[in-house]
Protein backbone atom coordinates (compact mmCIF):
# COMPACT_ATOMS: atom_id res chain seq x y z
CA UNK A 1 0.00 0.00 0.00
CA UNK A 2 1.22 3.50 -0.88
CA UNK A 3 0.37 6.55 1.23
CA UNK A 4 -0.24 10.01 -0.20
CA UNK A 5 -0.11 13.04 2.11
CA UNK A 6 -2.22 15.89 0.74
CA UNK A 7 -5.43 15.63 -1.26
CA UNK A 8 -5.09 18.71 -3.43
CA UNK A 9 -4.86 18.44 -7.21
CA UNK A 10 -1.45 16.80 -7.31
CA UNK A 11 -1.89 14.46 -4.34
CA UNK A 12 -5.21 13.24 -5.75
CA UNK A 13 -3.73 12.80 -9.24
CA UNK A 14 -0.77 10.84 -7.87
CA UNK A 15 -3.12 8.66 -5.82
CA UNK A 16 -5.07 7.94 -8.99
CA UNK A 17 -1.91 7.22 -11.01
CA UNK A 18 -0.63 4.83 -8.33
CA UNK A 19 -4.03 3.12 -8.12
CA UNK A 20 -4.25 2.69 -11.90
CA UNK A 21 -2.85 -0.86 -11.61
CA UNK A 22 -5.08 -1.80 -8.67
CA UNK A 23 -2.53 -0.78 -6.01
CA UNK A 24 -4.13 0.14 -2.69
CA UNK A 25 -3.61 3.82 -1.91
CA UNK A 26 -4.43 5.67 1.30
CA UNK A 27 -4.86 9.41 0.63
CA UNK A 28 -4.70 11.81 3.58
CA UNK A 29 -6.79 14.97 3.32
CA UNK A 30 -6.48 17.70 5.92
CA UNK A 31 -10.17 18.51 5.57
CA UNK A 32 -12.51 15.66 6.65
CA UNK A 33 -15.16 16.89 4.20
CA UNK A 34 -12.72 16.35 1.30
CA UNK A 35 -11.95 12.81 2.53
CA UNK A 36 -15.68 12.04 2.89
CA UNK A 37 -16.44 13.32 -0.61
CA UNK A 38 -13.65 11.21 -2.13
CA UNK A 39 -14.87 8.09 -0.34
CA UNK A 40 -18.56 8.74 -1.09
CA UNK A 41 -18.29 9.81 -4.74
CA UNK A 42 -14.84 8.66 -5.97
CA UNK A 43 -14.20 12.25 -7.02
CA UNK A 44 -12.44 15.29 -5.57
CA UNK A 45 -14.44 18.10 -7.16
CA UNK A 46 -12.82 20.83 -5.03
CA UNK A 47 -9.30 20.10 -6.32
CA UNK A 48 -9.47 17.73 -9.29
CA UNK A 49 -12.86 18.09 -10.98
CA UNK A 50 -13.84 15.75 -13.79
CA UNK A 51 -11.73 12.75 -12.69
CA UNK A 52 -13.28 9.53 -11.39
CA UNK A 53 -10.96 7.86 -8.93
CA UNK A 54 -10.15 4.16 -8.78
CA UNK A 55 -11.94 2.12 -6.07
CA UNK A 56 -8.52 1.29 -4.60
CA UNK A 57 -8.04 4.93 -3.51
CA UNK A 58 -9.28 5.31 0.07
CA UNK A 59 -9.23 8.76 1.64
CA UNK A 60 -8.83 9.55 5.32
CA UNK A 61 -8.48 12.66 7.45
CA UNK A 62 -6.76 10.66 10.24
CA UNK A 63 -3.06 10.96 9.51
CA UNK A 64 -2.37 7.91 11.71
CA UNK A 65 -3.96 5.77 8.96
CA UNK A 66 -0.78 6.27 6.93
CA UNK A 67 1.19 4.05 9.32
CA UNK A 68 0.47 0.90 7.31
CA UNK A 69 1.72 2.32 4.00
CA UNK A 70 5.20 1.22 2.89
CA UNK A 71 6.17 4.58 1.33
CA UNK A 72 4.62 8.03 1.40
CA UNK A 73 4.26 10.51 -1.43
CA UNK A 74 4.35 13.92 0.28
CA UNK A 75 2.19 16.39 -1.64
CA UNK A 76 1.29 19.30 0.63
CA UNK A 77 2.02 22.94 -0.19
CA UNK A 78 5.75 23.44 0.41
CA UNK A 79 5.21 25.87 3.28
CA UNK A 80 3.10 23.30 5.19
CA UNK A 81 5.24 20.21 4.63
CA UNK A 82 7.39 20.34 7.76
CA UNK A 83 4.41 20.98 10.01
CA UNK A 84 2.41 18.09 8.48
CA UNK A 85 5.31 15.63 8.70
CA UNK A 86 5.76 16.45 12.38
CA UNK A 87 2.19 15.27 13.04
CA UNK A 88 2.53 12.04 11.01
CA UNK A 89 2.71 8.66 12.75
CA UNK A 90 6.13 7.37 13.81
CA UNK A 91 7.97 5.12 11.38
CA UNK A 92 10.79 4.92 8.88
CA UNK A 93 8.90 4.77 5.58
CA UNK A 94 10.72 6.38 2.65
CA UNK A 95 9.31 9.80 1.77
CA UNK A 96 8.95 10.81 -1.87
CA UNK A 97 8.78 14.60 -1.75
CA UNK A 98 6.54 16.00 -4.49
CA UNK A 99 6.08 19.62 -3.35
CA UNK A 100 7.93 22.31 -5.28
CA UNK A 101 9.20 25.19 -3.21
CA UNK A 102 11.62 26.62 -0.67
CA UNK A 103 10.60 27.11 2.96
CA UNK A 104 10.14 30.79 3.82
CA UNK A 105 12.04 31.91 6.89
CA UNK A 106 14.53 29.03 6.92
CA UNK A 107 15.24 29.10 3.13
CA UNK A 108 15.50 25.31 3.26
CA UNK A 109 14.73 22.99 0.36
CA UNK A 110 12.16 20.26 1.04
CA UNK A 111 14.99 17.69 1.20
CA UNK A 112 16.35 19.67 4.16
CA UNK A 113 12.98 20.23 5.85
CA UNK A 114 11.87 16.58 5.75
CA UNK A 115 14.82 14.95 7.57
CA UNK A 116 14.58 17.57 10.33
CA UNK A 117 10.90 16.70 10.81
CA UNK A 118 11.31 12.95 10.39
CA UNK A 119 14.91 11.82 10.86
CA UNK A 120 14.35 8.05 10.41
CA UNK A 121 12.78 8.28 6.95
CA UNK A 122 15.04 8.24 3.88
CA UNK A 123 13.99 10.70 1.21
CA UNK A 124 13.62 11.00 -2.55
CA UNK A 125 12.34 13.87 -4.69
CA UNK A 126 9.84 13.51 -7.52
CA UNK A 127 9.64 16.43 -9.93
CA UNK A 128 8.96 17.09 -13.60
CA UNK A 129 6.36 18.26 -16.13
CA UNK A 130 3.17 17.05 -14.51
CA UNK A 131 -0.08 18.93 -14.76
CA UNK A 132 -2.22 17.02 -12.29
CA UNK A 133 -5.26 16.66 -14.49
CA UNK A 134 -3.28 15.06 -17.33
CA UNK A 135 -1.55 12.57 -15.03
CA UNK A 136 -4.87 11.63 -13.42
CA UNK A 137 -6.37 11.12 -16.86
CA UNK A 138 -3.59 8.66 -17.73
CA UNK A 139 -1.87 10.88 -20.31
CA UNK A 140 1.87 10.14 -20.60
CA UNK A 141 4.65 12.01 -18.84
CA UNK A 142 8.15 11.48 -17.53
CA UNK A 143 9.60 12.75 -14.25
CA UNK A 144 12.86 12.83 -12.33
CA UNK A 145 13.02 10.62 -9.22
CA UNK A 146 16.10 11.78 -7.33
CA UNK A 147 17.52 9.83 -4.41
CA UNK A 148 20.99 9.90 -2.87
CA UNK A 149 20.80 6.15 -2.17
CA UNK A 150 20.90 4.39 -5.57
CA UNK A 151 19.45 1.10 -4.30
CA UNK A 152 16.49 2.82 -2.66
CA UNK A 153 16.06 5.08 -5.70
CA UNK A 154 15.92 2.06 -8.02
CA UNK A 155 13.38 0.37 -5.73
CA UNK A 156 11.18 3.47 -5.65
CA UNK A 157 11.38 3.94 -9.44
CA UNK A 158 10.15 0.37 -9.93
CA UNK A 159 7.48 0.85 -7.27
CA UNK A 160 5.90 4.02 -8.71
CA UNK A 161 6.40 3.56 -12.47
CA UNK A 162 3.20 3.02 -14.42
CA UNK A 163 2.73 2.54 -18.18
CA UNK A 164 2.15 6.27 -18.76
CA UNK A 165 4.12 7.58 -15.77
CA UNK A 166 7.87 7.16 -16.31
CA UNK A 167 10.30 8.10 -13.52
CA UNK A 168 13.94 8.59 -14.57
CA UNK A 169 16.39 7.92 -11.74
CA UNK A 170 18.90 10.55 -10.61
CA UNK A 171 21.06 10.99 -7.52
CA UNK A 172 20.97 14.80 -7.78
CA UNK A 173 18.35 15.61 -5.13
CA UNK A 174 19.20 19.30 -4.86
CA UNK A 175 19.20 19.74 -8.65
CA UNK A 176 15.76 18.16 -8.98
CA UNK A 177 14.37 20.40 -6.27
CA UNK A 178 15.85 23.63 -7.57
CA UNK A 179 14.33 23.11 -11.02
CA UNK A 180 10.84 22.61 -9.55
CA UNK A 181 11.07 25.54 -7.17
CA UNK A 182 12.58 28.09 -9.59
CA UNK A 183 10.36 27.28 -12.58
CA UNK A 184 7.29 28.34 -10.59
CA UNK A 185 8.73 31.84 -10.19
CA UNK A 186 9.68 32.04 -13.86
CA UNK A 187 6.20 30.86 -14.88
CA UNK A 188 4.73 33.90 -13.13
CA UNK A 189 7.02 36.10 -15.26
CA UNK A 190 5.99 34.33 -18.47
CA UNK A 191 2.35 34.72 -17.51
CA UNK A 192 2.90 38.48 -17.15
CA UNK A 193 4.36 38.64 -20.66
CA UNK A 194 1.34 36.76 -22.03
CA UNK A 195 -1.19 38.79 -20.02
CA UNK A 196 0.37 42.06 -21.13
CA UNK A 197 0.25 40.82 -24.77
CA UNK A 198 4.02 41.19 -25.25
CA UNK A 199 4.18 38.36 -27.78
CA UNK A 200 5.59 34.89 -28.19
CA UNK A 201 9.15 36.13 -28.86
CA UNK A 202 9.22 37.85 -25.50
CA UNK A 203 7.96 34.74 -23.73
CA UNK A 204 10.56 32.50 -25.41
CA UNK A 205 13.31 35.00 -24.55
CA UNK A 206 12.17 35.01 -20.95
CA UNK A 207 12.18 31.20 -20.79
CA UNK A 208 15.79 31.18 -22.03
CA UNK A 209 16.97 33.96 -19.71
CA UNK A 210 15.02 32.35 -16.87
CA UNK A 211 16.75 29.07 -17.59
CA UNK A 212 20.09 30.92 -17.28
CA UNK A 213 18.97 32.11 -13.82
CA UNK A 214 17.92 28.62 -12.83
CA UNK A 215 21.30 27.28 -13.97
CA UNK A 216 23.27 29.95 -12.07
CA UNK A 217 21.33 29.32 -8.88
CA UNK A 218 21.58 25.55 -9.33
CA UNK A 219 25.34 25.68 -9.91
CA UNK A 220 25.82 27.74 -6.78
CA UNK A 221 23.91 25.14 -4.77
CA UNK A 222 25.80 22.18 -6.24
CA UNK A 223 23.18 21.02 -8.76
CA UNK A 224 24.35 19.29 -11.93
CA UNK A 225 23.83 21.05 -15.29
CA UNK A 226 22.33 17.86 -16.70
CA UNK A 227 19.64 17.84 -14.00
CA UNK A 228 18.78 21.49 -14.61
CA UNK A 229 18.55 20.71 -18.34
CA UNK A 230 16.41 17.62 -17.64
CA UNK A 231 12.80 16.82 -16.84
CA UNK A 232 12.67 18.53 -13.44
CA UNK A 233 14.35 21.70 -14.76
CA UNK A 234 13.98 22.63 -18.40
CA UNK A 235 11.15 20.13 -18.96
CA UNK A 236 8.97 21.59 -16.25
CA UNK A 237 10.03 25.15 -17.09
CA UNK A 238 8.80 24.81 -20.67
CA UNK A 239 5.50 23.27 -19.54
CA UNK A 240 4.72 25.78 -16.84
CA UNK A 241 5.79 28.80 -18.90
CA UNK A 242 3.52 27.87 -21.80
CA UNK A 243 0.05 27.26 -20.45
CA UNK A 244 -2.78 28.93 -18.62
CA UNK A 245 -3.31 25.54 -16.95
CA UNK A 246 -0.37 26.47 -14.74
CA UNK A 247 -1.55 28.26 -11.59
CA UNK A 248 1.70 30.23 -11.53
CA UNK A 249 1.41 31.27 -15.16
CA UNK A 250 -2.26 32.18 -14.60
CA UNK A 251 -1.27 34.36 -11.63
CA UNK A 252 1.26 36.19 -13.80
CA UNK A 253 -1.27 36.47 -16.63
CA UNK A 254 -3.68 38.29 -14.31
CA UNK A 255 -0.90 40.66 -13.21
CA UNK A 256 0.01 41.30 -16.86
CA UNK A 257 -3.63 42.19 -17.53
CA UNK A 258 -3.47 44.81 -14.82
CA UNK A 259 -4.85 43.13 -11.70
CA UNK A 260 -2.84 43.21 -8.47
CA UNK A 261 -1.09 40.18 -7.04
CA UNK A 262 -2.83 40.71 -3.70
CA UNK A 263 -6.25 40.63 -5.34
CA UNK A 264 -5.39 37.55 -7.44
CA UNK A 265 -3.88 35.65 -4.52
CA UNK A 266 -6.86 36.55 -2.33
CA UNK A 267 -9.17 34.91 -4.88
CA UNK A 268 -7.18 31.65 -4.99
CA UNK A 269 -8.22 28.43 -3.32
CA UNK A 270 -5.30 26.48 -4.76
CA UNK A 271 -1.62 27.10 -4.30
CA UNK A 272 0.61 29.14 -6.67
CA UNK A 273 3.93 28.15 -5.10
CA UNK A 274 5.98 30.71 -7.03
CA UNK A 275 4.44 33.52 -4.98
CA UNK A 276 5.96 32.02 -1.82
CA UNK A 277 9.23 30.93 -3.40
CA UNK A 278 10.07 34.20 -5.19
CA UNK A 279 11.03 36.33 -2.15
CA UNK A 280 13.00 33.48 -0.55
CA UNK A 281 14.81 32.81 -3.81
CA UNK A 282 15.63 36.48 -4.27
CA UNK A 283 17.00 36.76 -0.74
CA UNK A 284 19.11 33.61 -1.16
CA UNK A 285 20.39 34.82 -4.55
CA UNK A 286 21.21 38.31 -3.25
CA UNK A 287 23.09 36.86 -0.30
CA UNK A 288 25.12 34.59 -2.58
CA UNK A 289 25.72 37.32 -5.20
CA UNK A 290 23.79 35.46 -7.93
CA UNK A 291 22.25 37.66 -10.61
CA UNK A 292 18.53 36.80 -10.93
CA UNK A 293 16.81 39.79 -12.56
CA UNK A 294 13.67 37.91 -13.63
CA UNK A 295 13.16 36.61 -10.10
CA UNK A 296 13.68 40.12 -8.73
CA UNK A 297 11.11 41.46 -11.21
CA UNK A 298 8.57 38.87 -10.08
CA UNK A 299 9.16 39.88 -6.46
CA UNK A 300 8.53 43.53 -7.34
CA UNK A 301 5.28 42.60 -9.11
CA UNK A 302 4.13 40.49 -6.15
CA UNK A 303 4.87 43.44 -3.88
CA UNK A 304 2.54 45.62 -5.96
CA UNK A 305 4.75 47.29 -8.58
CA UNK A 306 3.09 48.14 -11.90
CA UNK A 307 3.76 45.58 -14.63
CA UNK A 308 4.61 48.29 -17.19
CA UNK A 309 7.28 49.77 -14.88
CA UNK A 310 8.82 46.39 -14.08
CA UNK A 311 8.95 45.39 -17.74
CA UNK A 312 10.56 48.73 -18.67
CA UNK A 313 13.22 48.23 -15.99
CA UNK A 314 13.99 44.68 -17.18
CA UNK A 315 14.28 45.80 -20.80
CA UNK A 316 16.59 48.70 -19.96
CA UNK A 317 19.21 46.65 -18.15
CA UNK A 318 22.71 47.16 -19.60
CA UNK A 319 23.47 44.97 -22.62
CA UNK A 320 25.83 42.12 -21.79
CA UNK A 321 27.37 38.89 -23.05
CA UNK A 322 24.93 35.99 -23.20
CA UNK A 323 27.00 33.38 -21.36
N1 LIG B 1 -1.13 20.60 -9.36
C1 LIG B 1 -0.12 20.17 -10.08
O1 LIG B 1 -0.29 19.95 -11.28
C2 LIG B 1 1.22 19.88 -9.43
C3 LIG B 1 2.12 19.09 -10.12
C4 LIG B 1 3.36 18.85 -9.56
C5 LIG B 1 3.69 19.37 -8.32
N2 LIG B 1 2.78 20.13 -7.66
C6 LIG B 1 3.19 20.60 -6.33
O2 LIG B 1 2.51 19.84 -5.34
C7 LIG B 1 2.26 20.63 -4.17
C8 LIG B 1 0.77 20.56 -3.87
O3 LIG B 1 0.09 21.13 -4.97
P1 LIG B 1 -1.42 20.83 -5.31
O4 LIG B 1 -1.60 21.10 -6.75
O5 LIG B 1 -1.85 19.51 -4.81
O6 LIG B 1 -2.11 22.01 -4.47
P2 LIG B 1 -3.65 22.35 -4.30
O7 LIG B 1 -3.72 23.80 -4.13
O8 LIG B 1 -4.46 21.69 -5.35
O9 LIG B 1 -4.01 21.65 -2.92
C9 LIG B 1 -3.31 21.94 -1.75
C10 LIG B 1 -3.71 20.93 -0.69
O10 LIG B 1 -2.99 21.21 0.50
C11 LIG B 1 -3.91 21.39 1.56
N3 LIG B 1 -3.35 22.37 2.48
C12 LIG B 1 -3.37 23.71 2.38
N4 LIG B 1 -2.75 24.24 3.45
C13 LIG B 1 -2.34 23.22 4.21
C14 LIG B 1 -1.68 23.13 5.45
N5 LIG B 1 -1.29 24.22 6.12
N6 LIG B 1 -1.43 21.90 5.96
C15 LIG B 1 -1.79 20.80 5.27
N7 LIG B 1 -2.44 20.81 4.11
C16 LIG B 1 -2.70 22.02 3.59
C17 LIG B 1 -5.21 21.83 0.93
O11 LIG B 1 -6.27 21.51 1.79
C18 LIG B 1 -5.18 21.00 -0.34
O12 LIG B 1 -5.63 19.70 -0.06
C19 LIG B 1 2.75 22.04 -4.52
O13 LIG B 1 4.04 22.21 -4.00
C20 LIG B 1 2.81 22.06 -6.05
O14 LIG B 1 3.78 22.93 -6.56
C21 LIG B 1 1.56 20.39 -8.18
O1 LIG C 1 0.02 24.75 -11.86
P1 LIG C 1 1.43 25.01 -11.42
O2 LIG C 1 2.00 26.26 -11.94
O3 LIG C 1 1.57 24.84 -9.93
O4 LIG C 1 2.33 23.84 -12.08
C1 LIG C 1 1.99 22.51 -11.84
C2 LIG C 1 3.16 21.59 -12.01
O5 LIG C 1 4.23 21.97 -11.18
C3 LIG C 1 3.60 21.43 -13.43
O6 LIG C 1 4.62 20.47 -13.51
Automatic annotation (TrEMBL):
Residues 2-151 form the Glycerol-3-phosphate dehydrogenase NAD-dependent N-terminal domain. It is found in: Cytoplasm. It comes from the Bacteria. Its EC number is 1.1.1.94. It catalyses: sn-glycerol 3-phosphate + NAD(+) = dihydroxyacetone phosphate + NADH + H(+); sn-glycerol 3-phosphate + NADP(+) = dihydroxyacetone phosphate + NADPH + H(+). Its main location: cytoplasm. Gene3D superfamilies: N-(1-d-carboxylethyl)-l-norvaline Dehydrogenase, domain 2, NAD(P)-binding Rossmann-like Domain. InterPro entries: 6-PGluconate_DH-like_C_sf (IPR008927), 6PGD_dom2 (IPR013328), G3P_DH_NAD-dep (IPR006168), G3P_DH_NAD-dep_C (IPR006109), G3P_DH_NAD-dep_N (IPR011128), NAD(P)-bd_dom_sf (IPR036291). NADPH binds at residues 10, 30, 47, 100, 132, 247, 271, 273. The keyword NADP applies. Residues 172-307 form the Glycerol-3-phosphate dehydrogenase NAD-dependent C-terminal domain. GO terms for molecular function: glycerol-3-phosphate dehydrogenase [NAD(P)+] activity. Sn-glycerol 3-phosphate binds at residues 100, 128, 130, 183, 236, 246-248. The active site is at 183 (proton acceptor). Keywords: Cytoplasm, Lipid biosynthesis, Lipid metabolism, NAD, NADP, Nucleotide-binding, Oxidoreductase, Phospholipid biosynthesis, Phospholipid metabolism. Pathway: Membrane lipid metabolism; glycerophospholipid metabolism. Catalyzes the reduction of the glycolytic intermediate dihydroxyacetone phosphate (DHAP) to sn-glycerol 3-phosphate (G3P), the key precursor for phospholipid synthesis. Belongs to the NAD-dependent glycerol-3-phosphate dehydrogenase family. This is Glycerol-3-phosphate dehydrogenase [NAD(P)+]. It comes from Sphingomonas jejuensis.
Amino acid sequence: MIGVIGAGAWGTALAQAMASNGEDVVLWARDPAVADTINDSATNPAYLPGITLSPSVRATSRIGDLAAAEAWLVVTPAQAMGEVLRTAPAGDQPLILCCKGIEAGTRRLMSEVAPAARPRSPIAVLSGPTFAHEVAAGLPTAVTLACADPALGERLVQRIARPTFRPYLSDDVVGAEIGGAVKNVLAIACGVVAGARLGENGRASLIARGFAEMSRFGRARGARESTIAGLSGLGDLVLTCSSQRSRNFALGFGIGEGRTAAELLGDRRTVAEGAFTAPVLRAAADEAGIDMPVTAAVCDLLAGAQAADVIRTLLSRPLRAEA
